[in-house]
Amino acid sequence: MAMTENQAETRDNLKYVSDMLEQLKRVAGVERGDLLHYFLDMARLEAENRLSARAAEDPGGSR
Question: Distance from CA of residue 36 to its chain's centroid?
């Protein structure tokens, strides 16, 4: 089953969010163990988990 344009856009958006959360950790200068570091990591992991789940649903649909 081919990935629709909407699915591709959602995947791209999730990847962007994941990347930006990693950048926010760097810009904020937070260290491991800091609560902000934890929350940013949890949000990044959630985005990556959603990406993985979408890839598992449509393994042939990636670009």
Answer: 17
Q: What average pLDDT does the structure give for the chain?
A: 89
> Which residues, other chains included, contact 43 with Cβ-Cβ below 8 Å and sequence gap of 6+?
17, 21
What value does the CA radius of gyration of the chain take, rounded to a whole number of Å? Answer: 14
The answer, as to whether pTM is greater than 0.85, is: no
Q: How would DSSP label each residue in 43-55?
A: HHHHHHHHHHHHH
Give the C-alpha separation, 39 to 43, whole Å.
Answer: 6
Does 24 map to a domain? yes
Domain residues for the domain of 41 are 5-57
